[in-house]
Amino acid sequence: LTSAELEGVRAQFPILARQVNGHPLAYLDSAATAQKPLRVIEAESAFYRESNAAVHRGAHTLAGEATELYEDARRTIAALLAVDENEVVFTSHATEALNLVAYALGTASLGRGAGASAAAAPYGLHAGDEIVVTELEHHANLIPWQELAARTGATLRFIPVLDDGALDLDAAATIIGERTRVLALTHVSNVTGGVTPLEHLVPLARAVGALVVLDACQSAPHLTLHPRELDVDIAVFSGHKLYGPTGIGVLYGRAALLDALPPFLYGGSMITTVTMERAEYLPAPQRFEPGTPRIAQAIGLAEAVRFVTEIGLDRIAVTEHALTERMLAGLARIPHVRVLGAENPAPRVGLASIVVDDVHAHDAGQVLDEAGIAARVGHHCAQPLHRRFGVTASLRLSLGVHSTADEVDRALEAVASIRPFFGFTEGAPA
Ligand code: PMP
């Protein structure tokens, strides 16, 4: 983006006008949740002011308008992903989407109970089967699989991380095998920003007929995400990290798979016929959207998708890449600062997690906050990966479409000041 375009983008985010601790806010926490452009806030608000009604089956005008807006939001997401609209399920967030898939596979494993049709049986897991994840995973793409394994008797295995933060592809080739039924992995690590080499891993799963579940939370805001091109069966992301509202997530599922899988939650809006004894379910996506859905949130997310696609995700990627390089080069020059996964040669998106010698991440984060810089501290819901790196916590700087070189430079200066602030004299920049 040109500097004029960047100014135009920034002007659309009301929160960026804020001062924090006497400084202009430098929001470097987009990987946790993105800020919202005014048009997203207004799209949600306009729905409540003008068209609010429950969707589907309403006879009145507002219900018709609400349904049209909600289904139009689904079409917008489908276009973003280059998939069919019936392959897009709205959930509360990525966490729910991943739980939905794991739970549905668990129901399929039972081979009985509501919705576990014959079509679902081939997807069931049993003792001896294996679920494969990676050591990079966010807890949201780990714990549901731990629980699925516990419920079905399947075994959970993981592809280990090498010292540089890359996945061990040689190990992957032996771990993914005839017993593998599911490969669940992240597209981009929320700790290192490294892009997973799907081109090496997905074919291994395909060769043994395993389902591939992709956690696209950290890629959707930064890269073009086309699940069919990536050859994955499921891809999930959260709306709030893509400049959309909280309370909305997206589950893409290959049509034949979604239609075979049993529902996750049961109730209204998902059925064809109900008797006192049993119920029959609508096809996807309705079978996975029981109850009154997240209407305003879906409409807000569709506006956010229009916002990023109008700028162009490919152009956003180029600008963010340059800023990422500036950030990494700057961090490398600061003594006693370690960037987790810095040596990994894989492409990466705009984030870096650092450890400052002798200073706890929370204290480091305080120094940045004093300078008006918002950064995340802790384990970022990836305890196993932090353990692998031999640390318990890190400080994460993450970029968004509105990030500037000046903000990165301010963050670098603040990071360089951390050790001196705590009295370590030999910590000045080289
Ligand atoms: N996976 C990854 C890689 C993430 O970064 C996050 C959010 N930190 C999640 C899953 C979970 O997203 P949510 O909390 O919106 O469900």
Count of β-strands: 17
Instruction: Count up the helices.
Output: 15
Q: How far is the N terminus from the C terminus?
A: 31 Å
User: Looking across the biggest beta sheet, what order are the strands in?
Assistant: 4-10-9-8-7-5-6
Low-pLDDT residue spans: none
Bound ligands, named by name, code or SMILES = 4'-deoxy-4'-aminopyridoxal-5'-phosphate
Question: Mean pLDDT, rounded to whole units?
Answer: 96
Largest sheet at a glance?
7 strands, mixed
Specify the helix fraction band: 25-40%
Radius of gyration: 22 Å
Description:
This protein is an alpha/beta fold and 430 residues long. It is 39% helix and 16% strand. It has 15 helices and 17 strands. Helix 7 (198-207) links the parallel strand 7 (180-186) and strand 8 (211-215). Helix 4 runs parallel beside helix 5 (143-152). It is globular, with a radius of gyration of 22 Å. The two termini are 31 Å apart. The mean pLDDT is 96. The structure holds 4'-deoxy-4'-aminopyridoxal-5'-phosphate (PMP). 4'-deoxy-4'-aminopyridoxal-5'-phosphate binds at residues 93-95, 138, 140-141, 186, 190, 215, 217-218, 238, 381.
Give me the secondary-structure topology.
Blueprint: H1 3-11, E1 19-20, E2 23-24, E3 26-27, H2 38-51, H3 61-81, E4 88-91, H4 94-110, E5 130-134, H5 143-152, E6 155-159, H6 169-175, E7 180-186, H7 198-207, E8 211-215, H8 227-230, E9 234-238, E10 249-253, H9 255-260, E11 271-274, E12 279-281, H10 295-311, H11 313-332, E13 337-339, E14 351-356, H12 361-370, E15 373-374, E16 376-378, H13 383-388, E17 394-398, H14 405-416, H15 418-421
The site of 4'-deoxy-4'-aminopyridoxal-5'-phosphate (PMP) has 13 residues, from helix 4.
